[in-house]
Amino acid sequence: MENQIKLVQSPVITHKLQEAGREVTKRIGELELEKQVATVNTVKSLKELRAELNKELADFETQRKFIKEGVNNPYLAFENTYKTEISDKYKTAIDFLKDKIAFVEDKIKSDKKEAIESYFSELCVSEKIDFIKFEKLGIEVNLSTTEKKYKEQVNEYITKVIDDLSLIKSTDFEAEILTEYKASLNVSSAITTVKTRKENEQKEVERLKAEQRVNRVNFLEKLGMQYVEITNAYEFNADIYVTLADVNNLSKEKFTEAYHDCEAKILDVKAKAQALKALEIKVEVNPEVTIYSEKKVAPISAPIFAPIVEAKESEPLKTASFEVTATMTQLRALGEFMKSNNINYKNI
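Above: the chain sequence. Below: its structure as tokens.
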């Protein structure tokens, strides 16, 4: 198409700006503005001088704007005609073709995406994976990447998920880790999260267990029960005791039951002791008085004595570890024997 636009003549602007510029420099220089002192008495004359300079500049600006309009107006008129007759018509045609091309390309991408999603769904069904949406893969379908390439990406992603699930199956707390994994699809993060949570839970369980143990010991000691190492129990006497294993392991209900049972027995022992003491006092006051009682006071067990075996100075010391199964009475006797013979021992 022949060039229909020509510049017939460039704008010609005549001026004597260099000469005028020298005159402006001379005028401003003669004013010696740097030497002007602003005071209450001189401010009026300074304002008048500023007004004169503003007026002179305004005269020059009027001439410049006139030249600019003379140059711009023909171009603006040309540009408006150009847009109406040329550019707008071309743009309309180009946009029309763009829409037709986009329709075809969008159809191609849509078909490609549908095929890829279908392949993804088949893989998920085959591998029994029902918690991943296609969008999680982050695939943006374009025209340049082949459908085969996209399917390879899908296959790599599902393979990774399968490997992650296999790893999760080999760990403890599989259900909890799997729940975390389904939310994040990050196997390392899921395992670490659950592991940290379990460690914190265990620490809290141990803290509560230790606190419970201290509280239970305090309750037993308030009843007058003391720890006996050989029997590994808190004892009031040979018949009233709670083993250390019970202190550590009984449920709240069972320990409360054991505690109240000991409490009741101790109160009964103390009551009988008081009754016996009162009986002894009455007999001392009036020996001739005969006292009848329907209840007999339980006899007090004789103290346990253990044989003493003298150790020979030349005989070397030996260490033996063993487990003893015996009654509480037998264990106390064993303890007395070891204490009497200066045998060091510890519970295992």
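The CA atoms of residues 109 and 143 lie 6 Å apart.
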